[in-house]
């Protein structure tokens, strides 16, 4: 037996339209941090920068060696014909990175106290190890 055709109420189409994209957890957290005072943002940025600086200074040499060696090996493999680079996919990845960089720069301009504290704390962390 066939199912009856449901009645459509054209005045209420909101349940049929696309829902707005929700913000990511990162965006929600940053918006909550931005609501605090300048001194809180400065202290939070300094602490996060210091932790990041200590981590980078501890892992930096190994990561730089691995990344540099990987790039050199990849270039040799490409030159010898073992690897073919799909430049269209590379361009797509770069455009995504460019969008993320623009988003990052908007954040830095909007939260200058947090950003300045992070940079200062980062240099303190690198210098302390």
Blueprint of the fold:
Blueprint: H1 25-34, H2 38-79, H3 87-110, H4 112-128
Can you tell me about this structure?
The protein is mostly helical and 129 residues long. It has one domain. It is 72% helix and 0% strand. It has helices at residues 25-34, 38-79, 87-110, 112-128.
Described by strand count, sense and barrel closure, the largest sheet is: none
Q: Which range does the strand content fall in? A: under 5%
Kindly name the structural category: mainly alpha
From the spread of the alpha carbons, the general shape counts as flat
Query: Rg, please?
Result: 24 Å
Which regions contain 5 or more consecutive residues with pLDDT less than 50?
A: none
**Number of DSSP E strands:** 0
Which H/E pattern describes the elements? Answer: HHHH
Approximately how much helix is present in the residues?
over 70%
What distance lies between the first and last C-alpha atoms, to the nearest angstrom?
77 Å
Subcellular location: Mitochondrion outer membrane
Keywords: Membrane, Transmembrane, Transmembrane helix
Membrane topology: Multi-pass membrane protein
InterPro entries: FUN14 (IPR007014)
